[in-house]
Design a protein that fits this description.
Number of domains: 1
Number of strands: 7
Helix content: 25-40%
Radius of gyration: 18 Å
CATH topology: Jelly Rolls
Largest sheet: 4 strands, antiparallel
Strand content: 25-35%
Number of helices: 4
């Protein structure tokens, strides 16, 4: 292997993602690919990171029935109407906001999906598999209705 010296390029983009309901799978693949193209990085990686504890980032297939199956699985895992100590506003004393909504289920669902994905960049493109797509997953329907958008960062590093 021959290692060549090259200066590393970094690029940061903030994607504003509008959501309406939960769970909602928002395909970011094209927008992330645009960030890669604009960065002019030929080889490196892109990190796609959610700035929210109730919006996940995952790579999955964009097949409509599978998206329904995944939404149903998330609801079975952490039902919206389940009991969550996080939702007990008479007891909870930290990280409270005036318009706090009961969203313990969305935080628990987030545990199964995660906050970020790292995708290689090879020859200036994302070498995703045939059916792979990059999704932001809104898990908090009430929050989706309260805010104008959610924020997803795309950090690109490479040469």
């Amino acid at each position: 292997m021959k290692v060549l010296e090259a200066s590393v390029r970094t690029c940061l983009s903030e994607l504003h993602v509008r959501t309406n309901t939960a769970p909602e799978f928002i395909d970011l693949t094209g927008r992330v690919a645009d960030c890669v193209q604009q960065s002019q990085v030929r080889n490196g990686f892109a990190v796609v990171f959610s700035r929210h504890t109730t919006v996940a980032v995952t790579i999955q297939e964009k097949e409509p029935l599978l998206l329904v199956d995944m939404a149903n699985m998330l609801e079975r895992l952490s039902p919206q109407n389940g009991h969550y100590r996080h939702n007990d506003f008479d007891v909870r004393t930290v990280h409270m906001h005036e318009n706090e909504c009961p969203n313990g289920h969305s935080h628990c669902q987030h545990l199964t999906l995660g906050t970020s994905e790292t995708i290689p960049i090879v020859d200036g493109r994302l070498p995703l598999g045939e059916f792979q797509r990059i999704f932001a997953v809104e898990l908090d329907g009430q929050k989706a209705l309260q805010v104008d958008h959610r924020e997803v960062l795309v950090q690109i590093l490479g040469v």
